[in-house]
Amino acid sequence: MTNRHANLSALLRSLNLGTMAATFDNLALKAAREDLSHADFLEELARLEAEERTRRRAERRRKESRLPAEKTFRTLERSAFPRAESGHSRTRMA
Prior knowledge:
Layout: H1 3-14, H2 18-33, H3 38-65
């Protein structure tokens, strides 16, 4: 890793862009091989960061909920909940 890459990696980490720091080097090589524009390279780098943040946020919220991993909306038994009276829980659209 060149000094420039090490500096960029440290700068990205200081900005809390860990995924960008971890992937920019390999992605830069791929961009050069595929002759991608700077904008395309940056867009892919930002997309990877955003996806990883979304994944970590979902995982953090799942852990904070303290629900068992198998508890999902797909496994929710709606019959266990009483039905709300008509008009009280939902606003009807005219």
